[in-house]
Amino acid sequence: MIRLLAVLLASILSGCSALEATRNPASPFFVIPEGSVIELHQSLEIRPGTSRIWLQRGRVTAGHDWYAPGCNLEVRTLDRERSQTVTPGTFVIRRVQQMEERVERLQPETRLAAVGAGGGLRVGGLDDNGMMGMWRGYHLWLESEDQPHVLRITCMGVFALPWEVQPPGLDDLRVVFGEVATLHLP
Known about the structure:
It is built from 2 helices and 10 strands, in the order αβββββββββαβ. The chain has helices at 2-23, 170-177; strands spanning 37-40, 44-46, 52-56, 59-61, 70-75, 84-86, 89-106, 130-143, 150-156, 181-184. 18% of the residues are buried. The model is unreliable at 13-19 and 116-128 (pLDDT under 50).
């Protein structure tokens, strides 16, 4: 009975420390809290036929570099004919949704003889046809009375193997936003 109580107590305490890690900005497990504010300092133009714009390394980029943390600001409507502009302003983060995205990259067609029955072997995200990598990050659902057409900003860490992948930390986001925007925590 004492062992059972000790295990339960240890489980509860480790759960509390894990919860604290998500609230500590210095922790790699930190999650941006709802009620945080993104302050946009410059106008961003979203090209016709798209609904988002990428930010990486402190500037607007034409696309996404898989191997650097980045964010994309997304509007609600896809306009195929005209550019859309997001003007400087304040956006409140109303919901935080953690996410991950898996990608399998095909390798050149190479077949090796194997002893045994069945098809390819798949262990830890690797198989005989490719290597799986992934991103981790979060969707930050935004609200602004002045610009209700702005939907969210999605921020992802570096593309990596499953056992190496991490979401972007607070310092990563500061580098991503640079002079374009500032994240204010509550």
